[in-house]
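Supplementary Text 2. Reproducibility record for the structural model of the 194-residue chain.

All settings were left at their defaults, and a single model was retained for analysis rather than an ensemble. We include the record here because the model underlies the residue-level annotations in Supplementary Table 4.
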Amino acid sequence: MARVLVVCTGNVCRSPIAEGLLRAALEVRLGDQAPSVASAGTMGWEGSGATPEAIEAAAERGVDIAAHRARGLRSQEVLAADLVVAMAQEHADVLRNLSPASTFTLKGLARLLEAMPRPGLGQPDEVLTSRVAGADDLRHRGFEGNPHDEDIMDPLGMPLDTYRAIAWELDEWCGRLADGLFGRHPARMGSEVD
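Retained model, structure tokens:
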């Protein structure tokens, strides 16, 4: 089974929310064939729970992250991942030293996939591998996307409304990522903008 790793700084706000939202988006499309999704932090607060605000904001988007426990980033986990999704460029820069071809920011990868032809049919693991390789190739051919909008803001220490805004943003981008990897979910097709 393919593995996706979502990375932020402390693994208590952005990446746990994104992990839950991306897992849900992939499971809706692929059921029990969905890639596994995990998260970690470059400076993970080992063993800490997600912040109460992150838990509440995720729950409002339909994802339960109450049992989440923060983990620090481990190089073997990065190397074992088929796709590494960073919440900000600073995380991607650290991760690219370990796994350059499979590391992207969430927004950057979604934009790359949207610039590619729609995904074909096939086994989810093969489709994921093919789409990630295609995105890496497009990136190396000079596709810039929007280099001024790569990061998901860190809400740590901010009020609940900021967490809600971040959870909404993550939900949108995780949906776009899942669409770009495996095709649009029928419920999202009606909202497609040409």
